Structures are given as structure tokens and as C-alpha cells.
Amino acid sequence: MTSQPFISSAFTRTILSHAQQSGLCRDQLLERAGICLSWLDGQGLHVPAHLVEQLWSECERQGAGATFGCELVNGMATTSLQGLNILLDSAATLRASLACFTEYLPRVTNYVQAHLEEVDGQARLHLRGVYQAPHFFGLDAATLSLVRNIARRLGRAPGEVFVGVTLTPEQAAGEWLRSVGIKVSRGPHPCLLMALDTLDEPLLGANPFLHQSMLRHWQVEAAQHVRSDSLELARHWLTAGDQPIERIAERLGYRQPSNFIRAFRKHFGITPKQFRLGL
């Protein structure tokens, strides 16, 4: 996981699209939030999380109602999860699906952490802000998306799947949850409660071949992110000290310095030596 808190550009585009549909000015929101339009082009790009938090706040200041985050669920594009939804849908059981969700969510955003806990005969899916408490618009969108998608995968009504849902005091998702028969309580972060045996229920869209194919894709993506982070660390070491390039390569786990040099050049466009001389 990178140290810089981020949210995917795809999800940021979804926020802006919903804001426009709600009558808010996209360009004004971008300017006031400090988000460059170029950051939203293409897939796999990241937007600094504090700027997306500012975007939520600007939506609120410009008149978005308290249920803005709840309504966002209706317009959520599948691209917001960068294909993660396909991996989750094709798993054999809910347990396998949620295991993938908690493991690979940091590739979509490292701003919110999902943790599955099994205690007292219940399965509890916690959503916590990693760095600070996220804006309640985002928490509402995340909570309702999970409730609806988990129920859809199981082919059951939300009220039959969830024992209860805990929301923060600011969240507005309680009205919808109660309307579908789910008990709502207050807590420091959102938490979805299910009977423990629900985790082992089969999913309607289970597809072993598709799931394994998507799983390999996400494992490769995760490995690429780890390599990217290690190369950023290499750049820091090249800047901060006089360690030999061979030593830096060894510390990062490269058996051959030539492999490290090749990876560095592919990532930054120059060799480690050129980078150090350029400084």
C-alpha cells in the first residue's frame, strides 16, 4: 500500500457525474476541490484522498442534500471498482467474495479499510477510515453499495441477509435500511452484521473459471503495486545517500542488479545512475 492516501479516479468521476445530475456545476466543484481534470482521464489513476474529501464538502456547500451519498449508489458505475466487482460476483461463496474484497480494496482506495470479523455467531464487516473519518456521503455510498451487492449475490432480500447495520451519527442511510427491514444502530464506523453461516452460502453468479482468471489478474496488479512502491523507495535511497546501486538492488530483493536497473528504467525512464548523476 502506498503511503499517500488515494481514491480511484473512476470513483471520483462517479461523484462528479452524480453531482451534475443533481444540478451542481462540475467545473466549479473541481476548481474549489483543487482537482485537475487530467487526473480523471483513463483507468487505474488515483486522486489524493484529501482532495476527494474536499470535493464531498464542496458538494455539501453547493446544496447537495443529506442523502447525496445514498442516491449516488443508483448511479454507481461498475468501473468505480475497476473490475473488482467481477471478482466478487464470481466467487463460490460469500466468504470467498468478502476475502477478495478486504484484500484488494486497497488497490482501489487505501483511504478506507474493510475488515471481516467472526464473533458471537455473527459475521461483522467493518468499514473504517485509515487516516481520518471519511465524509458521511462516502460512507453512505459504501455502506449501501455493500448491502445491496451482497444481497444480490446471495439472491435474497437485504432484510433476510443482514441482522443489522451500524452507522455513524452523520450518515443518512438509516432510512433506506429500515425500509427494507434492517435494524440500524449507531457506532463509530459503519459495520454490517450477518449470521455467521451466511458466509458459506453459495453465490448466484459463481463461476470458478472466471473467478480464477480475475484472481490472477488482481494478484499481478497487487504485485505490480508492490514493485512500484519499492522503486519509489529506491529513488529515495538514491537521493538521500551514497549506497552503491548493487546494495540498493539487494535491499529491494533483486537477485541481479541488472534486473533492478531494468525495472527502474522502465518505471522512471532513466537508469539509477543517470538519476543519481542528474541530482
From TrEMBL:
Signal peptide: none annotated. Residues 224-278 form the HTH araC/xylS-type domain. Keywords: DNA-binding. PROSITE patterns: HTH_ARAC_FAMILY_2. It comes from the Bacteria. It holds the Pfam family HTH_18. The keyword Endoplasmic reticulum does not apply. This is AraC family transcriptional regulator. It comes from Pseudomonas azerbaijanoccidentalis. The lineage of its organism: Bacteria, Pseudomonadati, Pseudomonadota, Gammaproteobacteria, Pseudomonadales.
